[in-house]
Amino acid sequence: MSSTIQLPAGSPGAQILGVGEYRPRRRVTNDELSQTMDTNDEWIRTRVGIRERRWAEADETVVEMSVAAGGKALAASGLSPEDVDLVVVASCSLPTQIPGAGPEVAYRLGIPRPGGFDVNAGCAGFCYALAAASDAIRAGSARHALVVGVEKLTDVVDMSDRSTAVIFADGAGAMVLGPSDEPGIGPVVWGSDGDQRDAIAIPAEGQPDAGNLTMAGQAVYRWATTKLTDTLQQAMDRAGVTAADIDVFAPHQANLRIIELMAKRLGLPGSTVIARDVAQAGNTSSASVPLAISALLESGEAKSGDLALLLGYGAGLTFAGQVVRLP
Amino acid sequence: MASTAEIQSGLAEILEEVAGVAPADATPEKSFTEDLDVDSLSMVEIATAVEDKFGVAIPDDELGGIKTVGDAISFIEKNQ
């Protein structure tokens, strides 16, 4: 017997309702690093634009940082835990493969039995998770979603390797999403270049550098500065906005030089606020975009109602960008 | 096909634009890293600008072998 499958009505759009962050207590300056490895403040600042970063201590786990950032985003949204029915955690540095972090983060926040899962799309993870959660709300699969980007990269970086130890860091950022009549989250433009899977990787047992995060810096820099301007342009085109409409540009905080080059090539107006959180946070992979947005909202540089252009990109290689309206 | 002189002046323009190197300093015997203070990421930007300007491909593994302005000029001459 064939019956027709029924679908929920869904929502015309989804929007961001609240943003939250957690930055680990321990602040590590370039000068501190130069005492234990062959590097210096000037070298780090001119190559990647990082002045300091945060390193999580033993009690600041992936789940603890997620709970802290998620709780703040929930409070900022004005919703109760009971209102949330989907939790997505984007991370590539969870210490165990099983179980994922989503269900535990939800449980710890008192969110009752939501859909809960993790996304591993390297440093693009948050923008992938944001798209998945936004689409779930639009389709009616969820009503309110908590999306977390979190990393404890110091667990997977060889802290004596000056090419990675000065760059990668820890933290968490989160957003709570809900339905809206007017779309507050634009269509995602996402993709991947799997032929470059080795460019950023944690090699498996038996391989050179097993267990440590490795990055082919020049290859990733070339890819990011030549291939991703089109992605950003497409994200604006698909949302029906132009560079002149963008109030805030918040790409993945990997390297200040990449951020400045992208901003220049996009032709963003001088009035656009450009996220430069990498200077304070280092490269926090999946956490970097929500951390950057949180910092700009906190400082008042970004305002409620601003249009922000987001872009995540990283291991895979993966990329995802979208235009959003800030809460 | 660009002449050697055209390649040298085109490369000097790129070096000025990307790394602020004075065109008069961009002579063939100069080492990018030692003499002109061009770092590894600026080398990538120079490579992509050279690719656009001269229609050559400079993969990352070839880029490591290009140490001097003269190396870059001969690479472009051979591959254009």
Automatic annotation (TrEMBL), chain B:
<dbReference type="InterPro" id="IPR009081">
    <property type="entry name" value="PP-bd_ACP"/>
</dbReference>
<dbReference type="GO" id="GO:0000035">
    <property type="term" value="F:acyl binding"/>
</dbReference>
<dbReference type="InterPro" id="IPR003231">
    <property type="entry name" value="ACP"/>
</dbReference>
<dbReference type="GO" id="GO:0005829">
    <property type="term" value="C:cytosol"/>
</dbReference>
<comment type="function">
    <text>Carrier of the growing fatty acid chain in fatty acid biosynthesis.</text>
</comment>
<keyword id="KW-0443">Lipid metabolism</keyword>
<dbReference type="GO" id="GO:0000036">
    <property type="term" value="F:acyl carrier activity"/>
</dbReference>
<dbReference type="InterPro" id="IPR036736">
    <property type="entry name" value="ACP-like_sf"/>
</dbReference>
<feature type="domain" description="Carrier">
    <location>
        <begin position="5"/>
        <end position="80"/>
    </location>
</feature>
<keyword id="KW-0444">Lipid biosynthesis</keyword>
<keyword id="KW-0276">Fatty acid metabolism</keyword>
<comment type="pathway">
    <text>Lipid metabolism; fatty acid biosynthesis.</text>
</comment>
<feature type="modified residue" description="O-(pantetheine 4'-phosphoryl)serine">
    <location>
        <position position="40"/>
    </location>
</feature>
<keyword id="KW-0597">Phosphoprotein</keyword>
<dbReference type="Pfam" id="PF00550">
    <property type="entry name" value="PP-binding"/>
</dbReference>
<keyword id="KW-0275">Fatty acid biosynthesis</keyword>
<dbReference type="GO" id="GO:0016020">
    <property type="term" value="C:membrane"/>
</dbReference>
<protein>
    <recommendedName>
        <fullName>Acyl carrier protein</fullName>
    </recommendedName>
</protein>
<keyword id="KW-0963">Cytoplasm</keyword>
<comment type="similarity">
    <text>Belongs to the acyl carrier protein (ACP) family.</text>
</comment>
<dbReference type="GO" id="GO:0009245">
    <property type="term" value="P:lipid A biosynthetic process"/>
</dbReference>
<keyword id="KW-0596">Phosphopantetheine</keyword>
